[in-house]
Structure to design on (102 residues):
């Protein structure tokens, strides 16, 4: 139900040194604007990583957290994920969803 704290955790393996970038999440509600967040990193060395985000679904003026399916997109990026310059882009991404029932 609305008011629930949702946790998102994702694991990934880096096989080569990366550039400065970040982990990004976008939650797309069924009837309002997307909600997003990011975590900056200064570059990653090879190894296993675990990142997490938490979403508090307490209704507000901007996001009512109405019942429905919420799509979630997570990306690990070089630079800012936009791909608008030669130093930015997406290393990997994943999608999932969750449902608010009332």
């Amino acid at each position: 139900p609305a008011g629930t704290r949702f946790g998102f955790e994702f694991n990934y393996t880096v096989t080569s040194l990366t550039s400065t970038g970040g982990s990004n999440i976008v939650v797309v509600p069924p009837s309002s604007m997307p909600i997003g967040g990011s975590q900056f990193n200064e570059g990653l060395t090879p190894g296993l990583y675990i990142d997490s985000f938490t979403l508090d679904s307490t209704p507000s003026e901007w996001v009512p957290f109405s019942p429905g399916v919420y799509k979630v997109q997570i990306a690990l990026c070089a630079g800012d994920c936009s791909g608008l310059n030669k130093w930015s882009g997406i290393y990997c991404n994943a999608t999932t969803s969750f449902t608010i029932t009332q």
